[in-house]
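Subject: Interface between my chains keeps coming out wrong

I've been trying for a while to get a sensible model of this assembly. When I model each chain on its own everything looks fine, but I need the whole thing in one frame so I can look at the contacts. Pasting all components below, labels as-is. Any help appreciated, I'm running out of ideas.
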Amino acid sequence: MIELEHVTKLYRAVIGVNDVSLSLKPGGHGLLGPNGAGKSTLINLLCGQLRPTLGRVRVLGERPWNNPAVLRRIGVCPEQDVLYPDVTGFEWVAYLLELYGFGRREARRRAGQTLEHVGLAAAMHRRIGGYSRGMRQRAKLAQAMAHGPDLLILDEPFTGLDPVARHAMTDTFKSWIRSGRSLLLASHILHEVEAVTPSFLLIYGSRLLASGSAGEVHALLADVPNEIHIRCEGASRLARCLVEEETVEAVRFADRGKSLILSTRSSAKVYAQLPDWIAASGARVQEMRSTDDSLQSLFASLLRIHRGAL
Amino acid sequence: MDLRAAWTVFRFEWTRTLTVPRLAFGAVLALFPVALLALIQYQGGRLEVAYGAPIALFVLIPQVVCLMGLLLWATPVIHSELEGRTWTYLAIRPAGKGAILAGKYLTATTWTTLVALVSLTACMPVIWPDTEPLRVFAVVAALTVLASLAYGALYVLMGVIFLRRAMVAAVAYTVMSEFVVSWVPATIHHFTMQYHLRCLGAEWLGWPDDLPHDFPIDRELLFGSLSTELHLLILLSLTAALFTAAVFVLRHRELVRADEA
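Reply #2:
Try treating it as a single job with all components included. I did that and got this:
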């Protein structure tokens, strides 16, 4: 479905995408990376808005740059907000459908149907200028889906949506994938992607760092240095227990002795054994979290693996 | 080029032009020459220069109203979409960037032509020409249509080349080329649009070879040495070439804003 061979995109001296190679089969895939990682550049390459400086891009078997045959088969929901304040959502989606070659009547029929599908039935005849961010996001999704593409490319599609709408949209994307069509969902939030598809592409610092299922990515991170923050009653007892374990590299106290921070290179093993250690020490845990759980540090670790530093 | 898509873009863009601020601006632009001519008439009586009325109408309508309108509506056709972050939504359609540009060009030229024709109509009672007023009206109207098409293509091209300072570049080019070079008594003025427009105007108005001795324009610069048909052909060819160049540039240019990428 999507093939990239050593693709590099340069904006003069700035690297947008750095030597990315991948091959994606039809189905759902998540493109995960923090802001500025290169997701939007990659999406622009896939939907033919940018040409690679080096390498080769193929979408649905063809080169996407200035290629109407590819554009006809993909639907794109860019990150950019819709800013035609003087036009209704219905007029906008119908207009964009006509640019796919649909007749006016068919375009209007599809526009109404799709806007209803994304939950914008009541507001579709209101001007976009009066829409909330979530409503604009739904209109953007409608314009991407309305022509029935084979591949849907979504850049941060959950931005501005309330929890109910997120849930509904997640279901929509899942049923899209189940219907045999393909989807590439770019986001900087792990659980958003995880809720839709188990297949990940991790991009950071313009590089594709890893790809595979959630399990594969977790396995990859198993031996990455990690810190676990534990707030509990009986922290000193737990600390005594932990320092005797080989998998624990260091333990230090925080919050005036109310918490302890455990350092390890074998987080998977530690997480597996931690309940037993806590039970043995008699500590009462109030809160436990990985201090390295931010996506940023996860990607930093992956980048170090990518460079061979770990 | 997908003409149906171009028509769709035109229809959509045309609806968007019918807003109170744009209509108000159109009215101001249309009334500017009327007010100016009324002021001249009020202060100095009728225009004293021979053929004064057609010259004034030619300068004010195709050369001022058209240029002003096109500067504002044709030059930023792509830049406004980029600024509004709406370009991507259009560019990812299979209709192609050429059709989008054609629709927007058509909207800008139609809008400008209509404003200019309203202005011309309103000017006529103020500066009623001594001879053949209807002929003067028809000729200036025809020149208005030609000027809108030609300058529209020029400004659209400048708009896709200079995305950020398109209007500044267009003004600079217009002043240099259309108002300076077009009056240089050398072959170079053949490459300006104003030269062909004024030659066509003089021909269509049937101005005689023996213009009055106090006529302010050099006869050779006014009439040139080409036939009417050739002037028309050159003007239309220039228009087509400029628009084709604009489509070519747009098709081959990556128009993704740095902050979007």
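Reply #3:
Confirming on my end. Chain A has eleven helices and 13 strands.
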